Amino acid sequence: MQISEWMAILSIFSILPIGFLVWLWFRLSKPSPSRMLKTTTGLVKGVTVRLGSGSIPLAQLVTVEGPNVGREYAISESVIRIGRDPEYNDIALFDEFVSNPHLSLRFSEGQFFIADEGSTNGTRLNGLPISPHRLFPLRDGDTIEVGQTQYQFKSTFQWWDEQIARRLHQEGTVRLDDLEGLASQYRATILSDYVAKEPESDLVCSSNGRMLSLRRVGEFRKVRDAWQILRSRPDRAEVIRSIKQMIEALELSLGLHRDTIDVNPYKALYCTSINTGLIFQGLNIPSHFPTIFLLETEVNIHQLDDMRYALATVWGAPRQLFLLFVTSQNSNQAESLLSNKLIDLLAYDVIWLTFDDTYKIIASREPQRIFKQLVLSQVSLVTVSPYNTTGPVADNVFFGREFELRNVAEHSGSKSYAVIGGRRIGKTSLLGRLHCVRLPANGFRTLYHDCATTPTYDAFLTSAIRDWRPESPSGILATFEDLLQSPPADKPLVLLLDEADKLVPVDRANGWPLFSALRALANSGYAQVVFSGERTLRDALRDPAGPLFNFANEMLLGPLDFHAVEELVTQPMRQLEIELVDEKAIVDRIWVFTSGHPNVVQRLCRRLIERLNEQGTRRIMLDDVNAVIEDPGFQREDFLSTYWEAATSLEKIISLLMADDESVRTLRTVRQALAERCNLHPKAREVDDALQRLVDLRSILKRTPTGYEFAVTAFPRVVAGTMTLEDMLEVWVEDYAGEQAKGEA
User: Which of the residues 360, 398, 543, 578 has an alpha carbon 20 to 30 A from that of 297?
Assistant: First the structure.
């Protein structure tokens, strides 16, 4: 080898170390991923004055598998690239299975996304491969697999949301400057993202976008300030002022207002009320909710007697339902102590309201709904249920009867009516609806009277007149005698006489003076009359010798139709915030079993509510309905007792015989069964009358071309499952024999 060749080789080897040193200097001078991305050991905690302190990233990647397990990368930029070459990527992975670049994380419009940048070996999100060059949303806790490394994505959005919520809860407002520790370019995004996540909160942004606040921030701060004052144990005057301020702010948030708020102190208690307007309309909850503030630092058992006394004296009558504000710092201890006694032993329904509850009401877009939910979530549904099994129903559970209402309302200027129906079929409710709503709306003045309280002519005449609608007439009309002598003529008048059959026996015995006077009043054109009653009134209407004959038009009241039953079941349940799972199936089952008897429907629904109370739930399933229907107690005490109420012994005997034998369906076969099985031989007319009453008054049977069938299809099965037929027949045959002997005497 020549010397020149050796010199060339030596030159090359002398240059190599210099090149290596240059390359090494270049690499060390470039920022590495560890300099470009901050590594942290966890989320920042312990926020005090500001919402954040220090630098808090938008998100983090935590290495859970592969090299550097446990290392965390703070993500504070809008685009982060991950790949093999540190020169072109923010996070470099020296892995033969990682491309260059491999994937990217992007932040846009309040959301992080991941995209595979066309890598050779692909990227997995939560174990599944993702398509290249497409954006996939990232959520807190998602896993990302790239090469031999697995990351877990951790978003700090939830942490920031918690800080914003805390600030709103304390001040009612959040400013961008309050988001200290978050890069300024992301603060508006985080704030608007919070608003999007809280669609039920009534929040407003300032015109410049730098502040978020509760829409009712003024009312919130009044409640907050009053609460703080009450916890400081001020003097009595300051307590009363603060309570009035809090109640006024709450009522304004509920869209209500009143001129004066009374606060009555009693020992450590302060009694007032909250105006709830129509929020609980139809439920058994007063429109002015009794409210007690308990200001003691330590709550003790002796305050129970104070509460009972205050509830009875301040509101003039014992109240079993009230709101209770306990301002003690240890409110949980107070609630535990008082609940055991007030609720479990004394059967009070207590609705506990805390500062957090008042915030939920004020901050909501629907404060009335939130307030209603807070109350119904704590109260016994049986206490507030609108279902009434012992008297006329409230307006909100009056459904159906449109034909009867319209007929009476349109023709009461010239006709009188007699509403005939069995017990609990809805006669009083119908008269109440005519009295309060339909007739006044048609220009009539109405007067309602319950004749059960005045069963004689003299008692009726001297009875005081009280219940006029829409207003009492001018002049002095103190009694019904005054009315019959000088009826008002300024507006057409309708007398609504409930339980009118109670007047019939005595009036018939005395020569019909009262009903003759009522007929004369109607004939004079000054007034018309709407009676209600049962068998006795119906018999009087058909007596040619009596004044009721051809006087009042008979209107027979039967079961409700399907649509009315559907409304009766579903609407009160909605008012009670109860969910009907498979509503159609539930309504169909109730309709088929009850055959539309309004009182049986209400009794069944009330049983369902009692069942919910025991279970501690607010959802009714079809299984719940079936459980109530199959309960022997319900079948005996609610179903049979309602259908048979006011039925004669003969009616009960006939319905039992027909339930036991499908061949007993005509007058002849009924008489034959009475003779063969009961040794009873009533005349055909008596049996026929009993059958007609089972159709018209009891709604148990229906007429067919071939005789009679059960209108209440469940009746035979209920009879078979709840009683021993022969035993009941023996009892009622004996009762019937006694009635016959008494009649003959």
Answer: 360
Enter the DSSP assignment of 1.
-
Measure Cα distances from 601 to 106, 541, 605 in Å: 60, 30, 6
Q: Is 522 left (phi over 0), alpha (psi -120 to 50) or beta?
A: alpha
Residue 451 CA to residue 435 CA, distance in Å, equals 15
Helix (H, G, I), strand (E, B) or coil at 22: helix
> Which residues are bridge partners to 527 per DSSP?
493
Q: Residue 65 in 3-state DSSP?
A: strand
Distance from C-alpha of 656 to C-alpha of 718, rounded to nearest angstrom: 11
174: part of which helix (H) or strand (E)? Answer: strand 173-175
What residues pair up with 355 in beta bridges, in sequence order?
Answer: none
Helices (H) and strands (E) in the chain, counts: 30, 29
Closest CA to 513 of 522, 503, 523: 503
Answer yes or no: are the C-beta atoms of 537 and 518 closer than 8 Å: no
Q: Find where tokens 């809090």 sit.
A: 246
Cα end-to-end distance, the chain, whole Å: 157
pLDDT at 23 over 60: no
CB atoms < 10 A from the CB of 462, how many?
13
The whole-angstrom separation of Cα 745 and Cα 359 is 75
What single DSSP character describes residue 393?
P
Instruction: Tell me the two tokens of residue 369.
Output: 């709904």
- The token duo for 11 is 């030159």
Q: Can you say how many angstroms the Cα of residue 725 is from the centroid of all Cα atoms in its chain?
A: 42
**With 50 as the cut, is the pLDDT of residue 22 above it?**
no
- How far, in Å, CA of 124 to CA of 130, rounded? 6
Strand order from edge to edge, sheet including 211-214: 173-175, 211-214, 203-205
3-state DSSP helix/strand/coil % of the chain, to nearest 5: 45, 20, 35
CA atoms of 468 and 695, how far apart (whole Å)? 35
* DSSP-assigned states of every residue in 316-362: SS--SEEEEEE--TTHHHHHHHHHIIIIIIT--EEEEE-HHHHHHHH
Whether the Cβ atoms of residue 589 and residue 626 lie closer than 8 Å to each other: yes
Minimum mean pLDDT range among 49-58, 127-136, 341-350, 613-622 = 49-58
Interatomic CA distance for residues 580 and 450, integer angstroms: 37
Amino acid at residue number 389: T
How far is 203 from 182, CA to CA, in rounded Å? 22
Report the alpha-carbon distance of residue 578 to residue 203 in Å, rounded: 29
Contact, 502 vs 531, CB < 8 A?
no
Provide the mean pLDDT of the chain: 86
Residue 405, CA distances (Å) to 388, 393, 478, 548, 556 in order: 21, 15, 29, 22, 12
Please list, residue by residue across 145-170, b when 16 or more beta carbons sit within 10 angstroms of its beta carbon and e when fewer do: bbbebbbbbbbbbebbeebbbebbbe
- Over its C-alpha atoms, the chain yields an Rg (Å, rounded) of 40
Q: What is the pLDDT of residues 278-324, one digit of tens each?
A: 899 888 888 888 898 888 666 666 777 777 777 777 776 555 677 88
Distance of alpha carbon 49 from alpha carbon 54, whole angstroms: 13
Question: Tokens 């009516």 — which residue?
Answer: 417
Give the tokens for residue 194: 């919070």
How would you classify the pairing of strands 527-533 and 416-420? parallel
pLDDT at 723 over 70: yes
> How far is residue 728's CA from residue 575's CA, in Å, rounded to a whole number?
41
Q: DSSP string spanning 702-740?
A: EEETTEEEESSTTHHHHHHHHS-HHHHHHHHHHHHHHHH
